[in-house]
Model the fold of this input.
Amino acid sequence: MQNLFTLSNRLALCAGYVRDKVKVADIGTDHAYLPVWLCLTGKAVSAVAADINPEPLSRGAFTIEKYNASKFVGTRLSDGLKNIKEDEADDIIIAGMGGELIARIIDQWPFSKNPQKRFILQPMTKCEELLKYLCENGFKITAQDTCKEGKKLYTVMQVCYTGEKTVPGDDFLYLGILTPETNENHREYAQLVLSRLEKQRRGNKSLEAAAEIIRKRCENHGK
Ligand SMILES: C[S@@+](CC[C@H](N)C(=O)[O-])C[C@H]1O[C@@H](n2cnc3c(N)ncnc32)[C@H](O)[C@@H]1O
Done:
């Protein structure tokens, strides 16, 4: 077997939110690095590496073969979670996609509202669409953090269904449960969000409100 590779910061943050000894589904797996790494390090007991497109899935199959992981990791052509059975995944990773698509994938799976499941979500864009969906549909963020890769900043959250629907504040839609007041990395992420909002907000009351709250929260650090 080849020596096991090191995960990027972004994928390592996702891996950190996977519970021990669970079955994993990695939706939109592409290269299948996460499921292979999780199984070969013993963190996951099995994994489905799923993708909607055959080409990325064949990249995933290559990684599985290269690292001799086929005993633990299988590939699956699947639009979102549509071809994943309930008992095949305890923890579901959906990383590297837009927030709207992630929300749609969760919404279309009949087993998403099983409170035993955990979703590990890493939206590339439209985080606010994802957080709005989660709040309005009874999902709760149980943990969230940020990471940096080169100059890029990412956020990853662990989410589960509780059934309690909430009305998100303007800032929550952009930051979730990050704490820019006390965490320097979260503050850096919040400042990036703020600079984006500054560009888009003109004439949009809710964006202006969100920008205002986020600015104040960033200024409040250490106080
Ligand atoms: C940018 S890659 C992300 C790869 C990996 N998850 C990561 O974070 O590094 C996005 C992948 O999602 C797949 N994808 C897009 N829409 C999908 C869907 N509805 N269901 C499953 N996979 C999808 C694409 O084919 C692509 O391989």
Q: What stands out?
A: The chain is about 40% helix and 25% strand. The pocket of S-adenosylmethionine is lined by residues 27-30, 50-53, 56, 79-80, 95-97, 101, 105 (CB under 6 Å).
